[in-house]
Amino acid sequence: MKDFLRYLPHTEEEGLQMLETIGVKRIEDLFEIVPKEQRLSKPLDLPGPLSEPDLIRHLQGLRSPILSSFLGAGAYHHFIPAVISAMTSRSEFYTAYTPYQPEISQGTLQAIFEYQTLMCQLTGMEVSNASMYDGASALAEAVLMARRITKRRKVLLSGAVHPEYRRVVQTYVDPDQGEIALVPYNEDEGRTDEKALLDLLDGEVSAVVVQSPNFFGVVEDLHPIAQKVHEKGGLMIVGFSEAIAYGILKPPGAVGADIVAGEGQSLGIPLSFGGPYLGIFTTLEKFVRMMPGRLVGETLDLNGKRGFVLTLAAREQHIRRERATSNICTNEGLCALMATIFLSCLGREGLREVAVMNLSKAAYAKKVASEISGCRPVFSSPTFNEFVLRMDRDPREVLDRLKEKGILAGLFLGRFYPELDHHLLVTVTEMNTKEEIDRWAETLERALR
Amino acid sequence: MNFPEDLLYTESHEWVRDEGSQVVIGLTDYAQRQLKDIVYVELPEIGSEFKKGESMGVVESVKTVADVFSPVTGKVIETNGALKEHPEWINTDPYGKGWITRMEVRDKEELKGLLSSRDYQGSLSEE
Amino acid sequence: MRNIKDTGLIQEEPLIFELGRQGRRGYSLPRWDVKEAEPTDLIPSTLLREEWEGFPELSEVDVVRHFTRLSQWNYGVDSGFYPLGSCTMKYSPKVNEEVARWSGFAGVHPYQPEDLSQGILRLMYELEGFLAEITGMDHVSLQPAAGAHGELAGMMMIRAYLQARGERRKKVLVPDTAHGTNCSTSSIASYQMVEIKSNEKGVVGPEAVASEMDEEVAAIMVTNPNTLGLFEEHLKEIAEIVHRKGGFVYCDGANLNALMGIVKLGDLGVDVVHLNLHKTFSTPHGGGGPGAGPVAVKKGLAPYLPIPVVEKVGETYRLNEDRPQSIGKMKAFYGNFGVLLKAYAYILSMGSEGLRRVSEMAVLNANYLMKRLKGHYFLPYDRPCMHECVFTDRFQERFDVSTLDIAKRLIDYGFHPPTIYFPLVVKGAMMMEPTETESKQGLDRFIETMIEIAREAEENPELLRQAPQKVKVRRLDEVLAARKPKLKWTGEK
């Protein structure tokens, strides 16, 4: 009956002793400060309490089936080495708070320092923060930061940026404080339309936001865009949702990015129906004091020994309050740890190899799909592990047909782009076997007949 | 604590050295002791103008930030760029190497509203 | 070899970058069943990576030993008492960690068709209902990823509501005891913050609010119980004052652990409240996240909730994106589902009676701690507290011992220190929140240690100033870290 007591250690007798020490008779007396008429007269209307086995039984009934999947679009099915959950299950990591007391938080602090270093290496940038909520909110924070640095209002946002990320940027930017102009994508190439971008680019622009690989899986040519933005005194913000791509792609820092903000879910973090994920945020050293989020720095202890602390905290909400660079406090520490362990296991060779495998498998799937009548890959620009297929039939019907066969064939793009109502975004990772891809193609062909 | 007689002071703990049409501004010994180890100084841009009482810069220590308020109305003509590398000079030599800005004063009359060393020390004992 | 030292279990551990050896690998990939593509055949070489700076090369055992050792330098709730005020460091049930790893949850893609996600959507729908019931609010969005994120969503909803009525209010009232996030949130939501002084009893007085409240004020942001651990006893009256002038009452629900089943915030006139599932609802803090910061609102604000919202139509659950008045999205997808799941499991495990007992025991523990430490440490607000209490170093000051020294000395005794120097209105504050999952024995041990430290402060203050000593690193030079920031490994000595 009192199954909840497994988490509450007080015995009846101890409770009484404590009340006596306090000098009151009953538990209710402790709440005397709450005006009587405000206190609840009846219990909360909630189910439970459940014992552990009953809880497990109940939750088992809520699980989703896992189908053969070609879904991506910002959430990717990659291999996660067992090492990651073995290490992040150590409760010294996961039951600790933000490392405010450095002497007993060196584990978290050193891991974040390693994370910051890895993120700089991955994105080719100079400084990284300790993480943000996810790729979308990190991108929104990047836009706010660019506005603080340049003191300009306008932002140019590529239409090939993940539609949900764009929506988050819109939510964060108060229309009274800033203006967002959408840059269309080139309908043949699937890339941000450079000409349209140049038409919009002027001395009022604080930043241009481009994602690479973009929402269509297309690799953007960032360098010329960055040059043009810089000529106008604006900043180049590069977003991404598929971090694995940087195993082979030139990092944004090498092509002129000022701020890089993206999603780290691919780096060892489970899909979990959309979260928790990992917002990666890196920038240049000269902007470090304008940066949102926590930072870990190296220093020395009293004995001259190396140690790590939270630093440059004067930017943050608990010190600068209404003038902080962001209101972020809790971030995604454990997810950052997952990414750190993931990259430690893979190393540069592993990251490159898994990227090449993604590229190869997606290229194979694209080739197989191009041979199916009734559908064809669109967009001529190079892609990484995602590509867009146009089909003659309504893709929603096709998706339903494949679902019946146990395959999630891709994402219907009409959901986000009304003009792409015959289009499917297909994602292929190292987890899709050739056999699975062949079966996907065969079933697709049959569905299109 | 040391509060030189030849300087003027504000209630927000800046000191002002009167040099004719120009003034030099810094933070007092009291202010630097309150802030403790200063780690960063945000200086105003040269040429920028401030009204008396407006925030013209920020100093950061590990656990706090504080504004530097302009003690007079005027234009910034020089800033102590060396503080970028040596913020600790505000702690070690607040009236010397730790100076923050030099300003051209719009109206010298304004200086009359500032505190003398003795009055400033008097205001501190009330805090 | 001069580096060999008999350090016992506290072993030195280099950074991963210093540990690697070229040629080691700690991974294996699925077999190659398609032809390996040459990247330059598919992507112009100008877009491809040439250089790799850094990146470790390690075997799996290197990685495991490295992170195991790192973990041993940490202190979590599972390690011992963690009375970090305003953070609610309660025990996180293990079963919740396990179920969150099931592939039927952890392996689910957010864009999979809704008919395959019915159980997950049901869970979210029910959790929204539970949180609405606990807070006495009408609707809940589970989307925000943390408390501050929920605050921002809440303030944006208020702004959207007012804008829809053509009102452009400029100010937000925030008490001086507020969390820093309240101040930064209001400014990110484009509001000017007006500070309200709390009264001599440590709470917000109706007069103080009345004198600042006008038609320019969009909202007041109150934390209840506040960061002094005190119940804001005038909240209902304050809400009436604010509502009369067309403003909203935002409640920071970070301290809800004191109130479950005791009082509903909605009954006190609160219009919006965010909850920290990683505090009140037992999901672990992860060394700084991930958390979840659902936001609950009264009916009038419901049209402005972030999209999508989970709906139940007949027996079917669905995500509705079609809400034209919505403030938009706070993050991609639908929220930190992996965290929501654990909070859902926790609420089911506790039930109504269990949650009430949680709050009762949390308040009992805090009052017991307060009573027993009173006299040894200065108690600035000497009145019954809720889930936490605030002491200061005033008695120890005369021995030239500070709150920081006391906190560091606690580490030598194997405890996590309380929250220090917060709230800002109390000089030298030590804010202690024992939570309900600490037993009387645990509390007694902590109390006796605190009393011993008070004695040490008097008799041997140097011991405190030199603390901690029984740790891997001693006090760290934070000034150096901030003056010469070194934020990544560079290979330089």
Molecular structure report:
The complex is a heterotrimer of chains A (449), B (127) and C (493). Chain A folds into 3 domains: 3-54, no CATH class; 68-76 and 347-448, Aspartate Aminotransferase, domain 1 (Alpha-Beta Complex); 82-343, Type I PLP-dependent aspartate aminotransferase-like (Major domain) (Aspartate Aminotransferase, domain 2, 3-Layer(aba) Sandwich). In chain A, a hairpin with an 8-residue loop joins strand 11 (375-377) and strand 12 (386-391). Chain A has 13 helices and 15 strands. The termini of chain A are far apart. Chain A has helices spanning 12-22, 52-60, 82-88, 91-94, 106-123, 135-150, 163-172, 194-200, 222-231, 317-320, 333-370, 395-404, 434-448, and strands spanning 68-69, 127-128, 154-158, 179-183, 205-211, 235-240, 259-263, 279-283, 295-300, 306-311, 375-377, 386-391, 407-408, 411-412, 423-427. Chain A is of the alpha/beta class. Chain B has a 6-stranded antiparallel beta sheet with strand order 1-2-3-9-8-5. A 3-stranded antiparallel beta sheet of chain B has the order 4-6-7, with no helix packed on it. The longest helix of chain B has 10 residues, at 117-126. Chain B is globular and about 35 Å long. Chain C has 493 residues and is α/β, with parallel strands linked by helices. Helix content of chain C is 36%, strand content 10%. Chain C has 16 helices and 12 strands. Chain C has a 7-stranded mixed beta sheet with strand order 1-7-6-5-4-2-3, sandwiched between helices. A 3-stranded antiparallel beta sheet of chain C has the order 10-12-11, with helices on one face. In chain C, strand 2 (171-175), helix 8 (180-188) and strand 3 (192-196) form a beta-alpha-beta unit.
Strand order of the largest sheet of chain A: 2-8-7-6-5-3-4
Low-confidence stretches of chain A: none
Shape of chain A: globular
Structural class of chain A: alpha/beta
Q: For the report, how would you describe the main beta sheet of chain A?
A: 7 strands, mixed
Order of helices and strands of chain A: HHEHHHEHEHEHEHEEEEEHHEEHEEEH
**Overall radius of gyration of chain C:** 26 Å
Work out the radius of gyration of chain A.
25 Å
Largest protein interface?
A-C, 202 and 199 residues
Quote the beta fraction of chain C: 5-15%
For this structure, the CATH topology of the largest domain in chain C is Aspartate Aminotransferase, domain 2
Structural class of chain C: alpha/beta
